[in-house]
Design brief:
By secondary structure, this protein is an all-beta fold. Helix content is about 0%, strand content about 35%. It is built from no helices and 4 strands. Strands 1-2-3-4 form a 4-stranded antiparallel sheet, with no helix packed on it. A hairpin with a 2-residue loop joins strand 1 and strand 2. The chain is globular and about 30 Å long. The two termini are about 20 Å apart. The relative contact order is 0.25.
């Protein structure tokens, strides 16, 4: 999740998520994560089958994307 590789289903060790500014807050749900960077931008990634990333669709995100509204 967040490493931009849809072929990897799970990783059981801490793994650096690149291409995201320094993070101050991380929140995790079931198969998705949300981060707030030091500039207060929201980044979302992971499963999105119920629209839990708040992007107006149900597409999975394999790498962090900056939320376009929040």
């Amino acid at each position: 999740m967040g490493i931009n590789n849809k072929d990897i289903e799970t990783i059981n060790i801490p793994t650096l998520v690149s291409n995201i500014p320094e993070v101050q807050i991380i929140e995790c749900g079931h198969s998705h994560s949300m981060c707030i960077d030091i500039n207060n931008y929201l980044w979302v990634f992971g499963a999105n089958q119920y629209g839990q990333l708040g992007l107006g669709d149900t597409n999975e995100r394999y790498k962090p994307i900056q939320h376009p509204i929040l």
